[in-house]
């Protein structure tokens, strides 16, 4: 538990609670969130929660960090630029067909580069628009609402709680409650981490890292596309070396 000073309070709606003065939202407070009074539904009564606090009544999700848009735009431009450069260069670097040392490769390189470019564009689009791993608001992710948060929402206020909230011990889905997204994140198991990204301003499951090139969080769901893009860049560079060596225009004296 956080060693910072805390003050205890008792409220008939909240139950017993302890509020930490630490403003680091990535820390978690060991709050007894489920000492509910008769005013609030039980932990498993999701229908009653939805009737009490419909999803439409929840505050809007946090605004995206501007880098969410600028990084994605820059990343898309970089990938598109590489695709055009490699496709055009592979076509222009080829010399006289009579001097090709590997006619099969020199004939097929246009198609190879085009396929690599299309695959890179697909992977980039999937990373940027796929929303993989993002925890969206729904009945199962938003409810039950911790009592401290529910009190503020019932009063028409945004949550004043400044720390993420730990769920019931050993509950597989109610690991920690994000007070910014107002969603439950599953408990961390091995490498399957849940995290709130400060740039995307959303919570993600199976989080690995936020990519500053594509402006998106890389999670288990889009990691294959992320790794494929890196591999495609290496393959495109290798293909250019092969094309230049097998199909490039050499000095005239070498043909004599």
From TrEMBL:
<feature type="compositionally biased region" description="Polar residues">
    <location>
        <begin position="1"/>
        <end position="10"/>
    </location>
</feature>
<dbReference type="InterPro" id="IPR001594">
    <property type="entry name" value="Palmitoyltrfase_DHHC"/>
</dbReference>
<feature type="transmembrane region" description="Helical">
    <location>
        <begin position="108"/>
        <end position="129"/>
    </location>
</feature>
<keyword id="KW-1133">Transmembrane helix</keyword>
<dbReference type="GO" id="GO:0016020">
    <property type="term" value="C:membrane"/>
</dbReference>
<feature type="domain" description="Palmitoyltransferase DHHC">
    <location>
        <begin position="176"/>
        <end position="242"/>
    </location>
</feature>
<dbReference type="GO" id="GO:0005783">
    <property type="term" value="C:endoplasmic reticulum"/>
</dbReference>
<keyword id="KW-0812">Transmembrane</keyword>
<dbReference type="GO" id="GO:0005794">
    <property type="term" value="C:Golgi apparatus"/>
</dbReference>
<feature type="transmembrane region" description="Helical">
    <location>
        <begin position="68"/>
        <end position="88"/>
    </location>
</feature>
<keyword id="KW-0472">Membrane</keyword>
<dbReference type="Pfam" id="PF01529">
    <property type="entry name" value="DHHC"/>
</dbReference>
<dbReference type="InterPro" id="IPR039859">
    <property type="entry name" value="PFA4/ZDH16/20/ERF2-like"/>
</dbReference>
<keyword id="KW-0012">Acyltransferase</keyword>
<feature type="transmembrane region" description="Helical">
    <location>
        <begin position="226"/>
        <end position="246"/>
    </location>
</feature>
<keyword id="KW-0808">Transferase</keyword>
<protein>
    <recommendedName>
        <fullName>Palmitoyltransferase</fullName>
        <ecNumber>2.3.1.225</ecNumber>
    </recommendedName>
</protein>
<dbReference type="GO" id="GO:0019706">
    <property type="term" value="F:protein-cysteine S-palmitoyltransferase activity"/>
</dbReference>
<comment type="similarity">
    <text>Belongs to the DHHC palmitoyltransferase family.</text>
</comment>
<dbReference type="GO" id="GO:0006612">
    <property type="term" value="P:protein targeting to membrane"/>
</dbReference>
<feature type="region of interest" description="Disordered">
    <location>
        <begin position="1"/>
        <end position="26"/>
    </location>
</feature>
